[in-house]
Each structure stands twice: as C-alpha cells, then as structure tokens.
Amino acid sequence: MKSTTGRGVKNVAGYDMNKLFIGSLGTFGVVLETTYRLVALPEDDCVLAVLFPSLAQAIAAAVALRTAPLLPSALLLLHAEVVHAWHAALPWTVQPPQVVLLLNCDGSRAAVARQLRDSRALCQTHGSLADTTLAGTTLPTLWALREGWCHAASATAQPWLHVRLGIVPTHLEATLTHLAQTPTFCQQPIGWVADAGHGQIWARLALQPSLSDELGQAVEDWLYTLRTQLRAHHGYAVVEEAPTTLRQQLDVWGNPPGAQLLSLYKRHFDPYAVLNPGRYVAGL
Fold first, then answer.
1. Nearest Cα to 48, choosing from 142, 133, 152, 170?
2. Dihedral sign, Cα of residue 59, residue 204, residue 236, residue 197
3. Looking at residue 241, what is its pLDDT?
4. Residue 98's Cα: distance from chain center in Å?
5. Which of 104, 122, 148 is the last residue of a domain?
6. Is 284 a member of any domain?
7. 2 neighbors 47 (Cβ within 8 angstroms)
8. Model-level pTM greater than 0.70?
9. Which of 51, 56, 260, 272 yields a CA-CA distance of 20 to 30 A from 196?
10. φ, ψ for residue 143 (rounded to 5)?
C-alpha cells in the first residue's frame, strides 16, 4: 500500500530480473514462482497530514523532508480535489492552490515521536497552515483510498481518464503546475496524487460527455503536449483507464524512455512473439 522513500534493501546478486518481468504484462515471460518476506509490524505507525497554501511551498517542504535525516515510508502530495474525495480520512475542506502533504512514519514509538516533531517543525518553516496526526483505524481507510485512487477503476457513471506520469522528482513542481491548466474537455480541475519520493503522479480527468465527437483528438493533443514536456526530463505518461471508445483512439503508452531497450529484451526473451504480443510499450 505504501511506497518507501528512504529505505533500500539489497535483495539480489547480479541482474535484478524481477523488475523486468513484473509490470511487463506477460510480454517477456511468465512468473511461475514468487517469494515473500514478512517483517513484524512496527511498534508505532502514523501519518502527519500537513496543509500548505500553495504547491510551491508543499514541494519545498517535501524536498526538505526527503533530504533531512528522516526515514518516511511514504511522502505524498494531494491536490485539493483529492482531499475533498478523501473526506473519510482527512479533516479539511481545501481549495486550489492549497495542497496537503502526507508523511508516514513508522518504527519505535520514540523514533516516530521524534520524526513527527522534526517534520512538523520543518513544515512550519515552509509556511504550513495546519497539521494533524492520523493513526489507528484511520490509516487503513487512508491507504485504501490511495489504492483506489491510483489503481482501481472508477465505479461511477462519470467518464474518467486516468493517467499515470513518471518524472524525476526535481521536476515534480513543473509537471504538477502543468496539470493545473484544466483542458477544455474536462468538467472540473484535474485531481492528482503525487509520490514526492519517486516522482510518480496519478491523475484523474472528468471528461465532458458533450464532446464525444471531438474528444479523441482533444485528448490526444493534450497527451502529446504533456508527453513532450515530460520527455524533455526523461519522463513519461501512460493512460491507465479510459472509456472504451476513447481508449481505442489513443496511444496509451506513448514513447517512454527505454522503449528501444525493451524491444531488444523482447527479441531476446520472446523471439517468436508468442507472449501477449502487442500489449506492452511500443507494441511489444
């Protein structure tokens, strides 16, 4: 559910093949066996939610937190639309350009208390407006909301376009600022959740049903502009969900960095193209 931002585990010697196969949608091989490692639950686990008046201040705080001697297990930025949608876990009603930062701390009680204290003080130096600590039964609700936003298909009748973006964290602010410009084919501002540790962004766009005839071209043009900006900084944008008729008109993968290398892998691991051909990046 959570994404680590400051912890690394050496779990492979030689080539780390699992990162090639997992996520490639079965185009490079078939996973026959998996191994899981279990660790004990932390003594304490809580989230510091901090409200900032602007995106720039929230990102400045996230950068400072990421480079400080702290070990957050998650460092997320939430657009105002997301905060509204997550009202079951978050106490505020906010409006753009306000942004909420979520900092997850876990470990021993003493260590968590110190990290919360230092993180709160650091956020205050960057202009935070308010903060609150989330713990106990609120945390499963919070992580379920995150999982639903980032990975689950929308269950509403409203047509949505879900896009996942990847960018070097140092260019996160420019990308999120670009998303603040609402396209004409959207009914409301673009809502997003950003992983400030890894540069991943999950964005949702509520589509205008009245533009059904011109929608495909309008979305394709928007994706082209977005991908052009991201590619300049070695980033990408992938369409993860869209109405069926729209999806058929879109290039869902684009041309992400490393596509040529992936083509070489495909020829090596699947020379006869029998493993889910055409399902992955660049038609692999």
1. 133
2. positive
3. 92
4. 18
5. 148
6. no
7. no
8. yes
9. 260
10. -70, -30
Give the C-alpha separation, 237 to 45, whole Å: 33
Residues in the chain: 284
d(CA 177, CA 164): 16
Q: Which pair of tokens denotes residue 209?
A: 């049903």
Give me 279's structure tokens. Answer: 């399902």
Q: Domain range holding 223?
A: 156-260
Going from the first residue of the chain to its last (284 residues), give the mean pLDDT of each consecutive group of 10, the final group possibly shorter. Answer: 51 72 84 85 96 97 94 95 94 93 96 96 98 96 94 72 95 95 93 96 90 84 95 92 90 85 89 90 84
Query: CA of 150: how far to CAs of 28, 41, 118, 204, 229, in Å?
Result: 25, 24, 29, 9, 22
130 & 171 share domain: no
For residue 88, the tally of other CB atoms under 10 A from its CB is 10
DSSP structure class, residue 207 = B
Q: Which residue has the tokens 């999806």?
A: 247
